[in-house]
Structure formats: structure tokens, C-alpha cells
Amino acid sequence: MAFAPQHTIRGRLLSSLFWTVAGSSAATIAFFGGGFHIPLPDLIRQTLANCVYSGCCVLLCAFGLPWLMPRVRGKLPFPADWTIIVIALVAFGAVGSLAATAIGTLIGYVPSSRFMREWYPNTLKVSIYFTLAFGLAGAAVGEARSRLASTTVALRTKERDEAEARRLAAEAQLASLEARVDPHFLFNTLNSIAALVREHPADAERVIEQLSALMRSSLDRRASLVPLDDELRMVRSYLEIERIRFGDRLRFDVSSFSSERAPLVPRLSLQTLVENSVKYAVSPSREGASITVNATSRDGRVFVVVEDDGPGLSGVELPEGHGLQLLKSRLAMTFGERASLLVDSRPGRTRVSLDLPFETEPPITQWL
Length: 368
Prior knowledge:
This protein is α+β, with helices and mostly antiparallel strands and about 375 residues long. The protein has helices spanning about 10-30, 40-70, 80-105, 115-195, 200-220, 230-245, 270-280, 325-335; strands at about 225, 250-255, 265, 290-300, 300-310, 340-345, 350-355.
């Protein structure tokens, strides 16, 4: 019997009924040899009498121990706590047997003249013995269940705290990756402005205005995910800035995305892909290169392809800190395995494809 404080009254009553039957059966077996040598009517009467005595003691234990255990366990040193519990069980046995004898007297089972003789010393001794045996067993089981419940709660709390810590660490890492993207774009643009300041001051002024608009747009949207339409507008502005620097060497076509709802993409993700094409396709070639940006959607997915006709990337493996490698890390942190970035590069053609879930609300990322 588990005397846990959280048990409901109904649960305690059902538990008391079980232990009453168990205690009565034990008393019958212990003191009457299982009842095989006595008449059946006497056996029934004796069993019912045992149920009354057991029930009175068990009820006191069922409602007394849950009140007592939290007040002594953990607050008093061993063995003082269990000493008080044993004393309480002795008291429950004494009071329970006294109450059962009183009930027997009221219903005529015990003659009033034999009240004290029926209660003391035999009935009292037996009641205390069984109350101690079953009470201590129940208290031990209740203590074990209580410790198990506390341990379970502690483990769940620890798992929740660890998951929260992993989530915060991942968010901090994602913020760090995003912070590494923003300066990269800014430095490239400032280099373009520096190249124009002396020979083409008017163009430099226009680039500065465009850069100001881009940075203002970026600072106004600090969320990790932004609408695809906004990202495409930023890409067009960026390429317009770079065209001032490269002139006819930079040719580009950015298609519009037609949809009633604008899906969300990682902030500056397309900017990273286009910047990569400018750096590796347009800049090293005298003839320059053409860049196309195309965004489509189907079957709940968004597909963005940035393609150029430059010399291609020198290797398949991207070094740590490369813009595409950083973008891969951002995709993994934001969408997990639901997003991918594929690079298909060879001389004369480099194609970088983004495959993202079509979502108009930020996903609840599981940082586990």
C-alpha cells in the first residue's frame, strides 16, 4: 500500500479495502490455521470480525500516514523520523482495535461485560502487530514511489534545461553566423565605392545612397527569416550597385516570384549566393559573366536557383568560413533536414540551388 500524499480519497479507500481483505486473510491463516478445522459459519463470523479490526486500523493508516510522512521524512534525522512513524503506527493499531471492539459491542457481537477483556490484551496485541507489519511495508513502498516520482521530475527538468541550453546555444551560433554575413556584404560594397570615388564621384554618390537604402532595409528586418520578395529586391539593389563597379561585365536577370503568399527565406541568403557569383564569376573574368536568379514553388516547396556562366568553383569542398558553407549552417539550424543547398559547378556554368519548405510563418525549430 503506497501512502503517497497525492492519492485521492477514492484511491485511498480502494487501497484500504484491498489491505483490509489482505490483513483479514493473513489473520485467519495465522491464528486459525486457514479455517479448515472450524465450522463454516464460525469461519465467516471470524473473517468478518477480522475485517472490522483490519479495516479500522487500515483506514487510520491510509489517511494518517500520508499526512505524517511529509512532516517527518527529510525533516528529522534517521532514525528519529522512523521512530515517530512506528509510534504512530502503534497508536493507529491501538485506536483502530479499540474502535473495532466498540463497533462489535454496539452490534452485539462483543458483550459489553467483556469489552476490556476482548480488547486487551489479545486483540490489542494482534492489531498492533499487523498494523506495524502492513503499515511499515506500505510506508516503505510509498517512500519508494515518492522518491521515484521526485527522480522522474528531476530527470525531466534536467532534460528540459539541457534542451533549452542547446536551443540557446544554437540560436547564439546562428546569430553569430548572420553577423558574419552582414560585414561581408558591407565590405564588398565599400570596396566598390572606393573604386568609384575619384574617377566617378556621381556614381559613387548614387551607390552610397543605394547602400544606405539596403542597410536601412536590413536593419529594419532583423528577423532570421524574411519574405522572399524582400530578399529578391535586396538582390536587385545589390547587383545594381555592383554594376556601377563592373559595368557591362556584369549582366543579370532577377525574376519576380508570383504567388499570393510570400514564403520565408533566411535573411541575406540570396545575397550570399549572388555575391558568390560576383566574386568567382564576374570579378576574375575580363568578359565578366551573366547571373540569373529564378525562384519557383511546387508541392509545398520553394526552389531558388542562382546560376552564372563563369569559370566555376575550383573545388567541390567548401572551406570553413566560405559564404556557401555559412549558408549551409544557417539552413541546418533553421530548418534542420527539411532544407538543402546543392552546388553544381563546372567550367562555364555554376548552379547553386536552394530547396526550402514553403512556410509563411517562422518554423518552431527543435534544438535537440
